[in-house]
C-alpha cells in the first residue's frame, strides 16, 4: 500500500523517459518530484526529502554513481534505485550497487516492473523502520518485562512462603491436638490409677497406725491392682511409641493361631461363628510371640464388639510378597512377609475413622468401654518388628485388619514355657552368692537390695555406672550384675556390662529398664548369660529371674 507521504525523486536527463516514469509512478499513487541533472537532484533531495531516488546512471553534469554516493552519505535514509539503458552489463550493475544503490534496473523498464521494484524497496524501508523502532524500544521493553517477571516471581515466592507458613501452622496445630489428646488420655487414666494406689496406701497406713490390721490386706490389694493396671498402660504406651523391649524369635503363626483358637472362641462368645483359614507351607515369621498373641486377642475382641448381634469372625494366614511400590507407601522393605488377618462381618468403619484407628486413645466405643490404646499398641508392635498393619473397612459390611510380619529364613526354635518360681518358693537360695545392683533410683535400689538379702544373697549397690565399675574392679567375687540400662555418669548399663565381662568373662548380667531401644536390645544382641526384665516388675518375678541366672535354673 502506498502512503501519500512517500515521495519519489525521478532523476533522468532524457525528458521523454523521465515523463514516462513519472506518469507511471503517479498512477500508482506516489508523489513524484523530478530532476534532469545531478546538481538538480541533490537540490531536490534537500527540498523534498524523498524516500526513494530513481536515479539514471548517465547524467550530463556528473555521474549517477557519484550522485548515489552523495545521497547515501548525506541522506542515508533514502533508498536508491539506479537505472541505465547504456550500462547493462553485470560489471555495470556491480559498480552501481558498490556505489551504495539499493537496487539496479536496466532500461527499458515495463511500467508494472517499475512500480513493483519501487514498492519492494518501500517494503524494505518500512521493515527497516520497524526494526529501528523495535531496537529503539527493545531495551525498554526488556526492562519492563523483566520487572514484570521479577514482580510475578516475588508474588509467587510470597505465596509459597505464606502457604508454607500455613502448612506448618496446620501441622503444628494437628501435632498439638494429637499431643493434647494423648496427654489428656494418659492423665485421665493415670489419675484414676494413682487414686487407687495413693488412696489404698493412705488407708493402709492409717489402719496400721490405728492397729486395725485386719483390713490392711484389702487396701494393699487395691493399691497393687491399680499399680499393675498402670504398668499395663505403660507397656501399651511403649508399644505405641515402638520402644517396648521385644524378644523376636522365629514363630510358626499357624501353630500360634491354633494354640489360641479355644481362648479366642471363649472370648468372642457363642454368638460369633469363628473360622480359621490357615495357609499350607506358611513361612516362619520373625516377631515376639507374646506380643503377637496379645495383638490377635485384641483384634478378636474388637471384632466381637463390632458384631453386637453376632456374625462371622475369620482368622486367615498367608504368605505375601510386597512389591517396591506398596512397600514404599508402607515405609517398610519390599520382600516376603507373613500375613495374619482378622475379618469380621460387623458394622464397619467410615474412612475418617479408619484413618485415625491407630491413633492412641482414639476409640468409637462408649465411655468406660475402651481406652483407645489397643490398635495403637498393635501398630507400634508391628512397626517395631519391621512389619506393617492395614485396615480395610466398609460401613455395614465389616472390617479386615491385616498384620504383615517379616519372614524368617531358617528353622523354628522351640521355646518351652516354664513357670517361674517366686521368692517365697526359694528362701535363702543364694547363700554365699554376691550380687551387684546398679540403679540411679534409690527406691528401686532399696527394694532390690532388700529382696536379694531376703533370698540370702550378699548385695552390693551403686548409683551410677562409674561407681559400679569401681566395685567390679575391686571386689574379688561377684556372681551377678543387676543394672539399669539408662545410668548417669557417662557409662550406661550396656557399656557397664561389656566392661565387666572384659574382667569377668563368665559374669551373669540382668538388665532392668523402663524401655529399651531396639538398637540396644534387638534380636541376637543379648549374649549368653544375659537377660532383661522391664519395669515395673513384681519382686517375686525379679527374684525368680535372679535365681534362674545365678543358680543356672
Q: What would your notes on this structure say?
A:
The chain is built from 15 helices and 17 strands. Strands 6, 7, 8, 9, 10, 11 and 12 form a seven-stranded mixed beta sheet that branches. With 553 residues, the chain is an alpha/beta fold.
Q: Mean of the pLDDT scores? A: 81
Query: Which parts are unreliable, with pLDDT below 50 for 5 consecutive residues or more?
Result: 414-430, 516-520
> Looking at the structure, what is the overall shape?
elongated
Helix content: 40-55%
Total number of helices: 15
Separation of termini? 115 Å
Residues in β-strands, percent? 15-25%
Radius of gyration: 50 Å
Quick one: how many beta strands?
17
The computed structural class is: alpha/beta
Topology diagram in text:
Blueprint: E1 7-11, H1 15-27, E2 31-35, H2 38-48, E3 52-56, H3 64-74, E4 79-84, H4 90-98, E5 103-106, H5 111-210, H6 216-240, E6 249-251, H7 253-268, E7 272-277, E8 284-287, H8 289-305, E9 311-322, H9 324-330, E10 335-344, H10 351-354, H11 374-384, E11 388-394, E12 398-408, E13 434-438, H12 442-454, E14 458-462, H13 465-474, E15 480-484, H14 493-503, E16 508-513, E17 530-534, H15 539-551
Parallel strand pairs: 1-2, 1-3, 3-4, 4-5, 7-9, 13-14, 13-15, 15-16, 16-17
Antiparallel strand pairs: 6-8, 8-12, 9-10, 10-12, 11-12
